[in-house]
Amino acid sequence: MTDDVVRGAALIANGDGRFGLETIEVDPPAAGEVRVAIVAAGVCHTDHAALRWPGPLVLGHEGAGYVEAIGEGVEGLEIGQPVMLNWAIPCGHCAQCERGAAPLCERTHETDVARLGTSRAHPGATRWRGRPVERAFHLGTFARYTLVRAEAVTPLPPHLLPEVACILGCAVMTGVGSAVNVAAMAPGATAAVLGCGGVGLNVVQGARLAGARTIIAIDRVPARLQRARELGATHALLARDDDAGHARLVAEVRALTDGRGVDHAFEATGVPALAFLPLQLARNGGDALQVSGAHGPATLELTDLFWNKRYLAPLYGGCVPARDFPRLFDWIAQGRLELAALISHRYPMEALARAFDDMLAGRSTKGVLRIA
Ligand SMILES: [Zn+2]
Ligand SMILES: [Zn+2]
Q: Which of 100, 143, 219, 309 is least surrounded by CB atoms within 10 angstroms?
């Protein structure tokens, strides 16, 4: 327990695309809160999008570190304990939670501190230049210290270091969960995964864990396809710029699935124009899942939905933290879910611009910031 305000580095976006390395101060935890010293944070496309959210904003929503201070009434955590952070916390009693749809909890994005379902700490707890500052997803993991509600903190098992676990909270959960929870892939199923970045590679892993018979990875970058094969893809198709209307790609996927198309086709590119392409890769009665969270307009040929095809845009891999994180930890311990190999680049906080460049150009599969 500590009464001290702490000061530490933080990457702050100003709302018009620019950002800088600044110093913030963070209150000690109030009742039900935990202050975490972050050591590593994953860089995600959403962080890049957040550069244009209303600012100033402490960036970052994937991260892990050590418990640094604990508020009153918090049970099951100790100072110095390694933990990961999670931005989506079902409240357990809104209409969506009660109908069993915890990932759609209506309170996850609320700002009312008195209610569960948000990681947000008490108002004004984080300050920059003497004034309260907002944090991405109420976490702001691109900062040395973050103050969150205890429900946002998941203790890590001994075999898992924060330096690696920092990518679990978004990329891994979204990818693996989309295959295992949302598509609910069955043993022997077939899948196509369009885009083999941080999320797509984890869809490949989720499909493998579910026992898929055929996993077709698709990307424009040969190195990413190689990585997809190492993680469980049974086939790799190189997407080509001269493939008008993707006719060749669709034909190749059909050729690998007895002319039928796959049971589950995933889009993980973040490119709006590709959002409906999975409908052409899915078999009749199959499903197309847009898991990249792409924003913007896209054109749909309505006949692509014929023959009972389903189109879903699942959020965060259908995450139910209490069920899913222990399961991910077990798979990692058993060597069935690869984590460290997904991290292709590590950067100091000063190099966030380079991390974004590498991500947007497809040079990195997953970049991680070292927080100090
Ligand atoms: Zn709820
Ligand atoms: Zn993310």
A: 100
**Residues 189 and 263 reside in one and the same domain:** yes
pLDDT at 291: 95
Give the distance (Å) from ligand 2 centre to CA of residue 1. 31
Residue 42 CA to ligand 2 center (angstroms) comes to 8
Q: Residue 114: what pLDDT? A: 42
Q: Give the ligand at the shortest distance from the Cα of 63.
A: 2
What CATH number should be reported for the domain holding residue 161?
Answer: 3.90.180.10
Interval between CA 161 and ligand 1 midpoint (Å): 30
d(CA 226, ligand 2 centre) in Å: 23
Residue-level pLDDT at 322:
87
Same domain, 92 and 73: yes
Q: Which ligand is nearest to the CA of 109?
A: 1
Neighbours of ion ligand 1 (CB under 5 A): 90-91, 94, 97, 105, 107
Q: Assess if residue 131 is contained within a domain.
A: yes
CATH classification of the domain holding 271: 3.40.50.720
Same domain, residue pair 94 and 197: no
* pLDDT one-digit tens code per residue, 220-246: 999 999 999 999 999 999 999 899 889
Number of domains in the chain: 2
pLDDT at position 183 is 97
Domain extent, residue 348, equals: 6-167+343-370
3-state secondary structure the chain: CCCCCEEEEEEEECCCCCEEEEEEEECCCCCCEEEEEEEEEEECHHHHHHHHCCCCEECCCCCEEEEEEECCCCCCCCCCCEEEECCCCCCCCCHHHHCCCHHHCCCCCCCCCCCCCCCCCCCCCEEECCEECEEHHHCCCCECEEEEEHHHEEECCCCCCHHHHCCHHHHHHHHHHHHHHHCCCCCCCEEEEECCCHHHHHHHHHHHHCCCCEEEEEECCHHHHHHHHHCCCCEEEECCCCCHHHHHHHHHHHHCCCCCCEEEEEECCCCHHHCCHHHHHEEEEEEEEECCCCCCCCCCCHHHHCCCCEEECCCHHHCCHHHHHHHHHHHHHCCCCCCHHHCCEEEEHHHHHHHHHHHHCCCCCCEEEECC
Instruction: State which residues of the chain have pLDDT below 70.
Output: 1-2, 108-118
